[in-house]
Structure formats: C-alpha cells, structure tokens
Specification:
mainly alpha, elongated
C-alpha cells in the first residue's frame, strides 16, 4: 500500500512514517538512504532509518509521530473532538483536561473515580 492509498482510506491528516529497518546491516542494504529519503519526501512521509537489533531510532520514530500529531492538534489542523479525526483520548479525565470547550464538571458517566 502506498501512502496515497493510506490517505484515501484514512484521513488526509494521517501521520505516516517510513522506517528503514536493519540500519545495522549497512553492507546488506538494498535501498540507499538517498533513495528512501527521496521516496519519503515525494510522498510527504516522515523518514528514519532504524535498527531493532541496536534499538537505534526505534523510540525516536514513535516520539516524532506523537510530536507531529500534537503539533497538528495545537495548530488546529486536527480536532480530537471531531468524529473521524483518528485521535482518541484513552482516559475520560484527560478529555476534561485537554478540551477547553468542556469546562463544566464531568458527568457521572465520565467520572473516572
């Protein structure tokens, strides 16, 4: 599946990262860094080379995705309260903290106590 396919099936605001795995096996490389980074740029993807063996950039891939999603929320490009945004808070108490539109006390259904 290419990124345009993913964007058609999901949201136009989807955050996609291309991870070139096995960075530690540079001698066995089939795709150059330049080829992969060019593909990522042409398809508006984030790109990192990672190594599961050494752990290099594995956590960074998740951090960069989360940071990009947060930036989109803060800029108003993504609205977590909008149905179909793809963003969902895991805890009802967090919805109260993050949403300025809902300043009233939580209802009995939303209370996490």
């Amino acid at each position: 599946m290419t990124s345009p396919d993913a964007r058609m099936l999901a949201s136009q605001n989807i955050v996609i990262i291309l991870c070139g795995n096995k960075k530690d096996l540079d001698a066995d490389r089939e795709v150059t860094f330049l080829e992969a980074s060019r593909f990522a740029q042409e398809n508006e993807l984030m790109f990192l080379e990672t190594s599961a063996l050494t752990g290099e950039n594995v956590e960074e891939a998740f951090v960069q995705c989360a940071r990009k999603i947060l930036n989109k929320i803060e800029s108003g490009e993504l609205d977590p309260e909008r149905m179909g945004s793809g963003i969902q808070y895991g805890d009802a108490a967090l919805r109260q903290l993050r949403s300025p539109r809902r300043a009233q006390a939580p209802s009995a259904q939303e209370c996490g106590c």
